[in-house]
UniProtKB/TrEMBL annotation:
Molecular-function GO terms, alphabetical: transaminase activity
Protein name: Serine--glyoxylate aminotransferase
Gene3D superfamilies found in the cross-reference section: Aspartate Aminotransferase, domain 1, Type I PLP-dependent aspartate aminotransferase-like (Major domain)
Record organism: Streptomyces xanthochromogenes
The keyword Thylakoid is assigned to this record: no
Top-level taxonomic group: Bacteria
Keyword annotations from UniProtKB, A to Z: Aminotransferase, Pyridoxal phosphate, Transferase
PANTHER family: ALANINE--GLYOXYLATE AMINOTRANSFERASE, AMINOTRANSFERASE CLASS V
SUPFAM superfamilies: PLP-dependent transferases (SSF53383)
Family: Belongs to the class-V pyridoxal-phosphate-dependent aminotransferase family.
Entry-linked InterPro entries: Aminotrans_V_dom, PyrdxlP-dep_Trfase, PyrdxlP-dep_Trfase_major, PyrdxlP-dep_Trfase_small, SP_NH2Trfase/AEP_transaminase
Organism lineage: Bacteria, Bacillati, Actinomycetota, Actinomycetes, Kitasatosporales
Length: 388
């Protein structure tokens, strides 16, 4: 490795850049997780965390990555052989679907082209074909991190309501929470799954479940085996500010600080900033003559943009050149998109000039890798940043 100066540009769609304030908070000495100081931290933090999910109900925190929080959502609400409906929006939806299968659930996958979100009309048809209400849960990835496509959760909810179908709605917001407008209570979501290392600006290591009333009721009769993931012992211990296991104390210090930063900026402003950065990025991509992978303007992601290269070019080579020359990491194409796309993360802790620097690196990297893109792309993005 050549020696590097300045900061590495971490522009993958998670893990994201950690603010210095959060980093410093995490560096504090670990305390007794059964002592009064810890209980105070938990009891202060939980209501602030709930506000970010847009819920007045409980949010369970696990010392786990987002994958663990996926499992918790399923095993707390479902029983062996229950029918579950998943939407193939991309790589992460596919992984959650596979997990549901491996847990012994009877899973239907609505096929997708990885360029659109979960289709409300497809949901309507599946529900219409299930008059006896055998489908117990619908799993949707809100922001598909492999494609940069954001599903319209409110419309999916409306479709369930119009069909009068009682299936639970389980939503993965790992890469949308604190980036893209999301409201657990108002949108009638039953379980919201999230993680620490994307919009929340923390290192990896915390997984979350926001739990609605219907999900809590379902948990009373759900029979899938669970122990560590069981919500109830966590909810019971949380009443007093504690956990039934050793919590990730230092990550909770970081979470406390990250939540403070989100409150200072204001959630609507956080969402607007992400939308603006996403718009500037798409403007550059279009001006470069390249394709944004997402095909429906209603579903453009505020968190990341996946850029589709013409067949003749290798997205992995572009990423390599950019890492080597400009010390910037971009997201790789995942699953069936490997080599075809690269992903620009614009979520979490960044500002206009971070994005401008990132887009400058992408433009120079494309040109060096032999993808003929005009330098007008960066200029067009700067115009959006200057005037927006
Ligand atoms: C990152 C991500 C996950 C996986 O979370 P891990 O923390 O890697 O286990 C799940 N879903 C989405 C949408 C993600 O972006």
């Amino acid at each position: 490795m050549p020696s590097r100066t300045g900061r590495h540009f971490l522009q993958i769609p998670g893990p994201t850049n950690i603010p210095d304030r959060v980093q410093r908070a995490i560096a504090a000495p670990t305390i007794d997780h059964r002592g009064p100081e810890f209980a105070e931290l938990t009891l202060r933090l939980l209501p602030c965390l709930e506000a970010v999910f847009g819920t007045s109900g409980p949010v369970v925190i696990y010392p786990a990555s987002g994958t663990g929080a996926w499992e918790a959502a399923l095993v707390n609400t479902l029983s062996q052989g229950d029918r579950v409906l998943c939407f193939e929006t991309g790589h992460f939806a596919t992984l959650w679907h596979r997990m549901a299968l491996s847990l012994g659930l009877d899973v239907d996958l609505v096929p997708g082209d990885w360029r659109h979100g979960a289709d409300p009309e497809a949901l309507r048809l599946r529900l219409a074909a299930d008059p006896r209400h055998t489908i117990k849960a619908v799993c949707v990835v809100h922001n598909e991190t492999s494609t940069g496509v954001t599903s319209r959760v409110q419309e999916l909810r409306r479709t369930l309501d119009e069909a009068g179908h009682p299936a639970l709605l389980l939503v993965d917001t790992v890469s949308s929470l604190a980036c893209i407008d999301y409201r657990h209570d108002e949108w009638g979501v039953d379980v919201t799954v999230a993680g620490s290392q994307k919009g929340l600006m923390l290192p990896p290591g915390l997984g979350f479940n926001a739990i609605g009333e219907r999900a809590l009721a379902a948990a009373r009769t759900a029979r899938l085996p669970k122990s560590f993931w069981d919500w109830q012992p966590v909810l019971d211990a949380n009443e007093h500010g504690f956990f039934p296991h050793t919590p990730a104390t230092n990550l909770l210090y970081g979470l406390d600080e990250a939540l403070r930063m989100l409150r200072e900026e204001g959630l609507p402003e956080v969402f607007a900033r992400h939308a603006r950065h996403a718009a500037a990025t798409r403007t550059a991509v279009k001006e470069w003559g390249l394709e944004v992978l997402c095909l429906d303007a209603r579903e453009y992601s505020g968190s990341l943009t996946a850029v589709l290269l013409p067949e003749a070019h290798d997205a992995e080579k572009v990423r390599e050149v950019i890492l080597d020359r400009f010390d910037m990491s971009l997201g790789a194409g995942l699953g069936r998109l490997a080599g075809r796309v690269f992903r620009i993360g614009h979520l979490g802790h960044l500002n206009d000039l971070t994005l401008a620097g990132a887009l400058a690196g992408v433009q120079m990297g494309l040109q060096l890798a032999g993808v003929p893109v005009p330098s007008a792309g960066l200029d067009a993005a700067l115009d959006v940043l200057r005037t927006g």
